[in-house]
Amino acid sequence: MSIYVFRPSSSSSQAADPPGPRPLCFSLYQYLRKVPKNGGVIIANPGETMTGTYAYGPAAGQHRWLIANWGETYRINCPFCSDTRHRLWINHRYGQPDAAMGGQPMKALAICFNEDCLKDYDNREQLFEWIFEIRRRGYEVPRISEAGVTQAATCLAPCTWPGDMCPLPDFALSYLAQRGFYADTVQRFDLRFCVRSAEFPSAAGRIIAPIVMHGTMIGWQGRSIGDGTYGPKYYTKPQFPKRMALYNLDAARGRSFGVVFEGITDVWRLPGYGMALLGKTMSLQQQVLLREAFPEAQPIILCLDPETWDNCAMKIHEMIQGWPNPIVRVKLPDGCDPADMDHASLLNAILTQSAAVGVPLPV
Q: Which backbone phi and psi does 76 adopt, to 5 degrees?
């Protein structure tokens, strides 16, 4: 396998061509070099074209490429994990129209060999946005207008609870109390317990939090009772478009400031001001929702988990720093997620760090 490595100088605004042959998809190569923290682009198998066959499954969404040879591949550091070894591989045909799928861009031709980050649908969508939304020329990737984004988010289909539900049993209430969440949290966020579910078996035995926007339940997320030893801590309604929603947006909308967290339990700790991305990244749609919710230049506070502060919080800050809203990144002590703190300590950390950078917050 032949490899060429190109790491552009940070002082150069117009990067030079890479050493060796010109990339098969030079525009894609250029876009990747502009992704923050990419670590430089490595070109593997230069000049080789992808070969494979197209397999059709029995149901929609089961059509896929069976790749015999990836051919020319561009390698960068994965933005979704701690990768520093260029383990995100992106095929030279990534983003090009797929005739077999009605001209949809090929987003599946990328793999993270570090933590398999692109297994997550929202990560795949976010990677696509990072690569193409920052470009100024080249691919004409279809974009959703801000009005279209708002309409799509407003019109997300209503949904029902995942199965047979009941009020939280004593052992679930006890678990929440051990973490400092009590009856007011259960009532405010309409938390319920899933007894059984034929359609979503993985939801059974979990605390279910409804995701509500514009007064309508559009999804849900389940939290395991315990540390997640026997399965994932969180289970979101399958195919729910997390990138189109902000948890608790209705309650936080229009407040004197808003706080952006990663997960739902972080929001439970600061219910009046908190919203959750339901992940570590902020999509274009979520940016539009957030901007519309705080139209009078109210401060926006980014309070992500400490381990993602340097990477994910910085990327989000870079995406929205041109807004009229003051943007503050709050850093919590290492190993201390927002949900692990009590309400007073978390609020004090936010107020103190915001004031330190000249953004006093009215409470």
A: -135, 170
- pLDDT tens figures, 334-358: 888 999 999 999 999 999 999 999 9
Q: Under DSSP, is residue 318 helix (H, G, I), strand (E, B) or coil?
A: helix
How much of the chain is helix, strand and coil, in % rounded to 5? 30, 20, 50
- Please determine, for residue 187, whether its predicted confidence score (pLDDT) is greater than 90: yes
Distance CA 294, CA 201 (A): 38
Phi-psi region of 106 (alpha: psi -120 to 50; beta: other; left: phi over 0): beta
> For residue range 30-88, what is the model confidence (pLDDT) as tens digits?
888 777 778 899 998 888 887 766 555 444 444 556 666 778 899 999 988 888 899 99
Residue 187 corresponds to which tokens in the numbers above? 């009532």
152 contacts: CB under 8 Å, gap ≥ 6: 144, 244, 285
In angstroms, rounded to a whole number, what is the distance separating the alpha carbons of residues 342 and 339? 8
Is the predicted pLDDT of residue 5 greater than 70, yes or no? no
For 190-315, list the strands marked E by DSSP.
192-196, 207-213, 216-223, 234-236, 258-261, 274-276, 300-302
CA distance 268 to 182: 10
What gap in Å lies between CA 288 and CA 103, rounded to an integer? 26
Chain centroid to Cα 210, Å, comes to 19
Residue 350 sits at φ, ψ, to 5 deg, of -65, -45
Specify the amino acid at residue 274. G
Whether residue 175 contacts residue 226, with contact meaning beta carbons closer than 8 Å, is answered with: yes
At 62, phi and psi to the nearest 5?
A: -105, 10
Average predicted confidence (pLDDT) for the chain? 82
pLDDT, average across residues 189-213: 96
pLDDT at 199 over 50: yes
What structural domains and CATH numbers belong to the chain? Answer: 3-132 (no CATH), 147-241 (3.90.980.10), 246-363 (3.40.1360.10)
Q: Around 335, how many Cα atoms within 13 Å sit in the side-chain half-sphere?
A: 0
Cβ contact 277:264 at 8 Å: no
Q: Which of 354, 357, 281, 270 is nearest to 313 (CA)?
A: 281
Contact 192, 138 (CB under 8 A): no
